[in-house]
Structures are given as C-alpha cells and as structure tokens.
Amino acid sequence: MLQTLTRFAATCQDLGGSLPDRIYGIPTWYKYLPSEDVAGKCSPVIDLSGDGQASVIAILLAVFDILIFFAGLIAVGYVIFGAIQFMVSQGEPDKIKNARNTVMNALVGLVLVLVSTVVVNLIGNTLT
C-alpha cells in the first residue's frame, strides 16, 4: 500500500504547486499525494487499488494541514486584537488583564498550531 505511494519521485508541491500555494502558502488538498506529469501539468495520483487507505490518509492529512493553516491565521489575528485592546485600555486594570489574557491565549494557540504543523508534515512526508 505505501509502496505504491513511494514509487513516484515527485509530488505536485515539488513541481511548483498551484497558484494559491505559491502565492499565499495555502496548502493544497493533494499536498501529500504522489503526482505524475500529464501533458506538462502536474496531476495528483489517487491510488484506489486495494483498499485505497494510503490515498485517503494522504488527503485527510492535507485537509488537516489546511485547517491548521487557517487556525494559525486566526491565532495571529487574536494576537493583533489583544495588542489593540491593550493599547486602548487607557490604564484600566480590568481591560489590561483582558487584553493580556487574549494575547497569552492566542500565543498558546499559535504554539499549538506550530507543533501540529510539524507533526502533520512529518507524518505526511513519511507517506510520500
């Protein structure tokens, strides 16, 4: 099952990826699938021979990678939101405390996003 995935040397990411992936860094759903060159274009290969479990796992990992990407954007947004709250708190202790909690929780979320990105990429790269 995994041997069918590893027989292709390149993935679509190695061949340049899609336009959103190259510009914004957004992962694609076929990130961990093997690919082949079809008429000069990168085409992901979904192997459904046997039980097709490896292709399904690769697609699910790529979907998790996409969700983690957007979770990271949300965490960065909350850091910025907390910083703005802190700036407009005008020295009020309750507002400062809420702003500090917002920033700290967002930073914890950002660390979780970074760790989960590493784990998903590690698992996904072992499949290809």
What would you note in describing this structure?
With 128 residues, this protein is mainly alpha-helical. The chain has four helices and two strands. A two-stranded antiparallel ribbon has the order 1-2. Helix 3 runs antiparallel to helix 4. It is elongated, with a radius of gyration of 20 Å. The protein starts with a helix and ends with a helix. The N terminus is likely disordered.
Structural class: mainly alpha
Could you tell me how far the N terminus lies from the C terminus, measured between alpha carbons in angstroms?
12 Å
How do the SSEs run, as a string of H and E?
HHEEHH
Q: What order do the strands of the largest sheet run in, or round the barrel if closed?
A: 1-2
The outline comes out as: elongated
Name a few traits of the molecule.
128 residues, mainly alpha, two-stranded antiparallel sheet, 4 helices, 63% helix, elongated, disordered N terminus
Please sum up the structure shown.
By secondary structure, the protein is mainly α. It has 4 helices and 2 strands.
